[in-house]
Amino acid sequence: MFRMRFLRFLLVFSLVFSLCDCVFGAKEEIRFDFEEGTQGWKIPDWAYYQDDHRGKTSNISTERASSGEQSLEIMCDYPGKLWAAVLIEREKDMDLSGYESISVDVYLPRKAPKGLFLGRVILTVGDGWWFTEQRVAEPLESGKWTTITIPLDTPDLTDRQALWRGRKEKRLYNNLNKIKKIAVRIEYDAAPPYRIGPKYDGPIYVDNVVIK
Q1: 24 domain residue, yes or no
Q2: Fewer beta carbons within 10 angstroms: which end of the chain, N or C?
Q3: Contact 118, 139 (CB under 8 A)
Q4: Which tens digits make up the pLDDT trace of 19-62?
Q5: Range of the domain at 88
Q6: Choice between 19 and 168, residue whose per-residue pLDDT is larger
Q7: Distance between CA atoms of 206 and 176, rounded to whole angstroms?
């Protein structure tokens, strides 16, 4: 009888301990919703000097929002006849160990050319500031919000399987505690001479960058 009671006590204690560990060990969600300003997000200085990066300005806007009342508006001028992109980033040391994913909402206006825009998350990691990007970009649809979501806590896989593209010895999985930059890149995927489109000069909106 005593043995059975003791075993029941151990079972209950284990369940309670596991529950407490889950509650207190959970990571607090990180959200950039632009309701209080840019929160450190901007077009980096180097991008203004790259011919294939076509972001002109980035400012808070009330024109569009996937939630709340504000988003980050990026004004751009894609030529249409070659691959080009706009990029916004937030530079700050972060420890994302234990977080599972990062997501971002992107709005492509209705007048933007259809079928040529892609969205991608990019991270700079490690003491060497190594560049790693989402391997498969998300197609963006004109006239609607698209949510890009990609896991963070994926173990190292082969180059063909990896969700993040970077140098093999400097994988994201091993450097989640040393995040230097988080960036979002919106690409106009033109590839002359067979895949080109009209020029697009106008806004793109980014909202709700969420790490959880």
Answers
A1: no
A2: N
A3: yes
A4: 444 444 568 999 999 999 999 999 999 999 999 999 999 999 99
A5: 29-211
A6: 168
A7: 24
